[in-house]
């Protein structure tokens, strides 16, 4: 077994356990000279080669014995035997599985390390066969554990029933610079080394390097279209929590400025009169002044946050007119640039609920749900950059850097996932790009459209062992079949049909994977894309509980047993 060195003593014990299976099977040669194993009870034939192993024989024996105990194998109603060494061993392993599943390892009669290793090998073989039969690729996730000593390798994928799944594939304690070697062995063991479509890490982006070039001294992910789009950035939630409560900071700044303005205007009746004239003059010039009176200091103290921002912005044009009438007020008033910043800040908070993201609602969601989250994080970082005239920018620099890197890494990929949501298609990208890029929106949309078309064409041409898209025949105005599309037209026709078709209604409770399961026959190329892009995993806080296994290093004698226990527990419970 590549990647697990369990030593000679463990190997010998494992070999002895395997030999017990042959008490219930005959090993013979067939007419082609190949090894076959025949069940003593039902006489069913199996591959008996030593390279095949005995997991499939053990699994059959359990099933065969269960049928015999229930009187279903032969119909004789024989009573269960239950006295052979193998029967006792199987009962023991069933008990061990139950204890592993319930995380009971520290008992008066603890689970033997050999039992954990053997069950691990058995379940791992089942997982390998399961992966082999899937017609999809995998998004690789690499998570460093809280103790900093172990790394958890996981894959996220959309199975053949169009269900989003997650599986742990390794739980390693890595020393030195062995990261890529360990990862390579983990993927090779499960036969998915050439089926990784993307990678997300929460660690150093330079540790794990996936390459599609076999000539390079790196791990090859040839056949993985997205392998060069490695997503090595911190999770969105981690980035968001590095940003302090800037809304409260801005509220305090504006409150202080409004207090100064209020005190200046209301200190004499003449100032109040001049301000009234300024409001009327601003309105006569077609400027919007919707508030009537400047709030007193007492009213300012009891105002809600958004109410404070709104009344300040409702009066800003009157303040500018007051500057023209009273030069002394200019030193009290905010500059036009500062008022523009406050306007941008208010609009962002008003439209985005103060910039809050409800992370718990994103648990186990497909990647299309994270494009608007990414847009909000990036927009927040752009807003923060404008606040330097009010708030010291240093405290926000880490957030701004992380959000910008996140945008550069994820923007096109998650925008692609969002377009694969039939409720929005290109509309959601256009709206968010307009909010983020403003006048440069069209240029950025062209960049994304080229990316979308390029990726689609790669899938449609059968790149990376994909089958080509279905061919289409055109109808004339009378409904008669006319001609096939030429290769150039056919290449983009499926994408054109999808984007031009009416969007699905904007309902919140929408099963996007069920939609693709139904419509995959009409959009086969886009369906392949959907399985790759929608399975990209961006973790959220509640998922971190999944990585906190209830044990520590001292609970096991070796890292090998620790990994076997952690992986087996996950496989048995999911």
From TrEMBL:
GO molecular function: DNA binding; protein dimerization activity; zinc ion binding
Top-level taxonomic group: Eukaryota
One Gene Ontology term, aspect cellular component: nucleus
Domain BED-type: 16-71
InterPro entries per record: hAT-like_transposase_RNase-H (IPR025525), HATC_C_dom (IPR008906), RNaseH-like_sf (IPR012337), Znf_BED (IPR003656), ZnF_BED_domain_contain (IPR052035), Znf_C2H2_sf (IPR036236)
Keywords: DNA-binding, Metal-binding, Nucleus, Transcription, Transcription regulation, Zinc, Zinc-finger
Main location: nucleus
UniProt subcellular location: Nucleus
Coiled-coil regions listed in the entry: none
SMART domains found in the cross-reference section: ZnF_BED
Summary of subunit composition and partner proteins: Homodimer.
Name of the featured protein: BED-type domain-containing protein
Organism listed in the record: Acer yangbiense
């Amino acid at each position: 077994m590549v990647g697990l060195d369990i030593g000679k003593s463990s190997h010998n014990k494992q070999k002895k356990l395997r030999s017990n299976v042959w008490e219930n099977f005959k090993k013979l040669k067939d007419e082609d000279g190949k090894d076959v194993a025949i069940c003593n009870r039902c006489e069913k034939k199996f591959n008996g080669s030593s390279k095949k192993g005995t997991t499939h024989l053990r699994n059959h024996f359990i099933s065969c014995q269960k049928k015999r105990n229930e009187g279903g194998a032969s119909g004789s109603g024989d009573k269960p035997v239950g006295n052979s060494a193998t029967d006792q061993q199987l009962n023991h392993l069933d008990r061990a599985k139950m204890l592993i599943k319930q995380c009971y390892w520290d008992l008066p009669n603890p689970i033997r390390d050999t039992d954990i290793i053997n069950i691990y090998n058995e379940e791992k073989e089942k997982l390998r066969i399961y992966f082999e039969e899937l017609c999809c690729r995998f998004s690789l996730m690499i998570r460093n554990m809280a103790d900093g000593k172990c790394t958890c390798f996981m894959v996220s994928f959309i199975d053949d029933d169009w269900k989003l799944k997650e599986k742990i594939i390794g739980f390693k304690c890595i020393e030195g610079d062995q990261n890529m070697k360990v990862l390579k062995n983990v993927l090779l063991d499960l036969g998915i080394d050439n089926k990784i479509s993307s990678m997300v890490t929460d660690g150093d982006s330079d540790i794990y390097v996936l390459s599609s070039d076999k000539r390079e001294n790196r791990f090859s992910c040839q056949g993985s279209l997205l392998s060069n789009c490695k997503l090595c950035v911190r999770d969105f939630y981690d980035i968001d929590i590095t940003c302090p409560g800037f809304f409260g900071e801005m509220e305090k700044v504006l409150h202080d400025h409004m207090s100064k303005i209020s005190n200046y205007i209301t200190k004499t009746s003449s100032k109040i009169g001049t301000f009234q004239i300024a409001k009327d003059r601003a309105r006569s010039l077609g400027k919007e002044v919707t508030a009537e009176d400047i709030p007193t200091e007492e009213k300012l103290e009891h105002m809600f946050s958004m109410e404070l921002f709104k009344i300040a912005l409702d009066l800003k044009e009157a303040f500018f007119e007051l500057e023209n009438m009273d030069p002394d007020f200019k030193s009290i008033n905010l500059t036009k640039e500062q008022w523009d910043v406050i306007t941008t800040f208010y609009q962002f908070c008003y439209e985005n609920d103060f910039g809050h993201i409800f992370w718990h609602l994103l648990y186990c969601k497909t990647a299309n749900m994270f494009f608007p989250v990414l847009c909000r994080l990036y927009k927040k970082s752009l807003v923060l950059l404008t606040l330097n005239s009010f708030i010291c920018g240093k405290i926000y620099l880490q957030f701004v850097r992380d959000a910008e890197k996140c945008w550069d890494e994820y923007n096109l990929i998650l925008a692609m996932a969002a377009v694969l949501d039939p409720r929005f298609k290109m509309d959601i990208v256009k709206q968010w790009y307009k909010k983020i890029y403003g006048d440069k929106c069209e240029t950025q949309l062209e960049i994304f459209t080229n990316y979308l078309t390029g990726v689609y064409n790669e899938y449609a041409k059968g790149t990376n062992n994909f089958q080509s898209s279905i061919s289409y025949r055109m109808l004339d105005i009378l409904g008669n079949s006319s001609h096939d599309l030429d290769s150039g037209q056919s290449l983009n026709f499926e994408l054109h049909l999808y984007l031009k078709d009416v969007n699905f209604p904007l309902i919140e409770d929408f099963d996007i994977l069920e939609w693709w399961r139904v419509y995959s026959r009409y959009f086969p190329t886009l369906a392949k894309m959907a399985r790759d892009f929608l399975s990209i995993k961006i973790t959220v806080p509640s998922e971190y509980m999944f990585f906190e296994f209830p044990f520590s290093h001292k609970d096991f004698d070796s890292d090998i047993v620790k990994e076997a226990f952690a992986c087996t527990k996950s496989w048995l419970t999911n």
